[in-house]
Amino acid sequence: MSIARGRLRPGVVLVWALLVVAVAFVATGLLPATDADALVGRTAPVLGFVVAITIVAELARDAAVFDVIAQQLGRWGRGRVLVLWGAVIVLAVLSTVFLSLDTTAVIVTPVVVLLAQSVGVSPLPFAFATVWLANTASLLLPVSNLTNLLASPTMGGNAVAFLALSWAPALAGILVPVVILTLAHRRTLFATFPTPPRHAPADRTLFLVSSIVLLVLLPLLALVPEVWIPATGAALVLLVLFAARRREALRLSLVPWQALGLAAALFVIVETAHARGLAELLGPLSAHGHGLGELLRVAGIGALAANGINNLPAYLVLEPIASGDPVALMALLIGVNLGPLVTPWASLATLLWHHRITALGVRIRWGGFMLWGLLAAVLTVAAAAVALALVHG
After folding, report:
1. Is-contact 88 126, C-beta < 8 A?
2. 72-77-83-89 Cα dihedral, nearest 10 degrees
3. Closest to 159 in 3D by CA, of 261, 257, 87, 230
4. Residue span of the structural domain in which 163 resides
5. Among 317, 313, 318, 306, which Cα is nearest to 265's?
6. Distance of CA 85 to the CA centre of its chain
7. Over the stretch 243-257, which tens digit does the pLDDT of each residue have?
8. Cα 68–chain centre separation
9. Which residues pair with 17 in a beta bridge?
10. What is the CA radius of gyration of the chain?
């Protein structure tokens, strides 16, 4: 192995550094034992869900489920890019809502980019659609985003209670970016393309069983309060299936170790800061009431913090400003979920997305990405806050 290949990537070094700091906080008592125990009880089911749903998504991808879906979308388009565009939007939204934003960024992105390239259509609008919707469509259900899972207990602890608060701003979070992208890429989207041929999956049994597992799992994620339970069951079924039919697909990289380490370290570090007085310092930023101006302010603070330090730590730091008020907490989620469209580091999904599209030969200029992202973030966050105020203000 060459020296260059042996170097740790900067992201890996950062995660290890944060883990060392987190372990030191626990070991030295900076994070009191009672607070640490409470943190484990709150976050263990969340991280367990992340592991399980990532395994499900990765193995479903290996079984060609997403490839077959994309091919079928291409055939349904009947040579019209606008119809294909609508189908891709639906796929990205469903993937984000039920399988989380990282699934859309990591798995759906290469599928739709390759689909666009295979029919001779510019992949740029499709690539932008997946990264924007991975973030902005992640407000609807608790399972859509890690921040939602953390906030859900305050909002009733089940998908129905969460949906009662999220449906209106989530709808705005989907419609506004889609309208912007459709107008910006209208020349590409109002063209035609040759209908792609049908390709059968290599292992039909893997494909059929994986498809059935997904079809059963998706409604359970919206109906079962403890979402880690059905996700874990689905992951176990697929692990057993692949162990019997394609053992080489079972690899350690199925578990998102880096994302887990980053999330766990941030949980501990921010909880330590709160235990040492951060919540009191944030007192002046606390939400007061459900007026439009107040909800816009809270959402704006969340969006600014997400683009500055990443959406997960932004949520963890700012959670106390909602003061346990579900409506104010939804305004904060609007900011940290829908707002991180500007800086590359604002969302882990954006970094994962960029790695995937670069590997496919798609080049993105960060200057243009940030300018378009700024426009989309401002309009989307504002529209979602207005929708929340109209329904719950």
Report:
1. yes
2. 20
3. 230
4. 25-392
5. 313
6. 20
7. 999 999 999 989 888
8. 22
9. none
10. 21
Which position has the token pair 């989620």? 333
pLDDT of amino acid 157: 83
Q: What is the pLDDT of residues 320-361, one digit of tens each?
A: 998 889 999 999 999 999 999 999 889 888 888 987 888 778
Helix-then-strand count for the chain, H and E: 20, 0
**Cβ contacts of residue 130 below 8 Å, gap of 6+?**
88, 92, 104, 105, 108, 109, 112, 113, 353
Which DSSP string corresponds to 32-48?
A: -HHHHHHHHHHHHHHHH
Tokens at 367, concatenated: 């200057």
Q: Is residue 10 part of a domain?
A: no
Is 117 contained in some domain? Answer: yes
Q: Is position 17 within any domain?
A: no
Q: Tokens standing for 116?
A: 């666009």
Summarize pLDDT for 90-117 with one digit per residue, the tens: 999 999 999 889 889 888 898 888 888 8
CA–CA separation, 109 vs 105, rounded Å?
Answer: 5
Nearest Cα to Cα of residue 91 among 123, 134, 122: 134
* Residue 374 zone, left/alpha/beta (φ > 0; ψ -120 to 50; rest): alpha
Bridge partners (DSSP) of residue 80 are 192
Number of structural domains (the chain) is: 1
Query: Helix or strand or coil: residue 310?
Result: coil
Q: Does residue 212 sit within a domain?
A: yes
Name the burial class of residue 10, with classes exposed (0-12), middle (13-18) and buried (19+) by CB atoms within 10 angstroms of its CB: exposed
